[in-house]
Amino acid sequence: MPLSSENTNGVVGLCLSLADIAISRLVAGRKKDLDYVSALIAHRLVTTGDLELLAETLEPEPRALVEMRLKLVE
Predict the structure, then answer these.
(1) C-alpha to C-alpha distance for 62 and 2, rounded to whole angstroms
(2) Which of 6, 17, 59, 60 is most buried (CB neighbours < 10 A)?
(3) What H or E segment, with its residue span, contains residue 53?
(4) pLDDT digit string (tens) for 3-52?
(5) Distance CA 69, CA 39 (A)
(6) Per-residue model confidence as pLDDT tens digits over 52-65
(7) Which among 18, 17, 31 is positioned nearest to 73, based on CA atoms?
(8) 2 - beta bridge partners?
């Protein structure tokens, strides 16, 4: 969700959902990223179902990475 007003001097901030952040972490795939996503799932801040649905909107290559890495963190 973009955040901008006359007080931001033309700068637009993005308010990302936890699912968006988790997807980007799964694409990056570093150990700390996978640990982060695993913790989000363990604490029920995101669900694997949410992430699977969001992954469907990705291009084939990052989608494949997300699907593979999601199996590692479940």
Answers:
(1) 23
(2) 17
(3) helix 48-55
(4) 888 888 888 888 899 999 999 999 999 999 999 999 999 999 999 999 99
(5) 14
(6) 999 999 999 999 99
(7) 31
(8) 14
- Structure tokens that stand for 69 in this block: 């890495």
* Residue 69 · residue 26 · CB < 8 Å: yes
Q: Which of 42, 43, 40 is closest to 54 using CA atoms?
A: 40
> Which stretch of DSSP H or E encloses residue 22?
helix 18-28
The overall pTM is greater than 0.90 = no
Q: Around Cβ 43, how many Cβ atoms within 10 Å?
A: 8
Looking up tokens 């694409």 gives: 27
